[in-house]
Amino acid sequence: MNALTRMQRFDDMFPDLFRRFARPMSLSEDAPADIRIDVVENDHDYVVRAEIPGAKKEDIRVAVEGNFVSISADIKREREEKSGSRVLLKETYFGSASRGFSLGHEIDDKEVVAKLEDGVLKLTLPKREGSRTREIAIQ
To answer: Is the CB of residue 121 less than 8 Å from the CB of residue 114?
Structure first.
């Protein structure tokens, strides 16, 4: 009997024991996850869609330096349950999330457009003129 067969038999005896540890843990269901992004490139610019649920536009910061883009947000969530005039439960979360990434071309930071709609930040990042990627021949 090889080691894999032994582990399969052990897993059959305790099917959920190891799978529970393999799942990512979070502190709270209400805590923000990482900022998830989609990046699309065309000839003139990059379009970035970043999901930042629960963040207000005044709490989001975007910085562009050369070809590096960073997005950060402070997130505050409050939930309160009342029964009549008494508060029975109040859950509050304060936290932050950030994301940084490099692109293939430098960005013209004077022409960047940022819009927030329904928790999704849309960035239009125009490529800087003259900052083309040059392919290098290998000798």
So the answer is: yes
How far is 129 from 22, CA to CA, in rounded Å?
47
3-state secondary structure labels for all residues of the chain: CCHHHHHHHHHHHCCCHHHHHHCCCCCCCCCCCCCEEEEEECCCEEEEEEECCCCCHHHEEEEEECCEEEEEEEEEEEEEEEECCEEEEEEEEEEEEEEEEECCCCECHHHCEEEEECCEEEEEEEECCCCCCCCCCCC
Q: What does the pLDDT read at residue 12?
A: 58
Beta bridge partners of 3: none
Q: What is the distance between the alpha carbons of residues 110 and 125, in angstroms, rounded to a whole number?
A: 10
The stretch 11-17 carries a mean pLDDT of 56
Considering only CA atoms, which of 99, 79, 97, 101 is closest in space to residue 89? 79
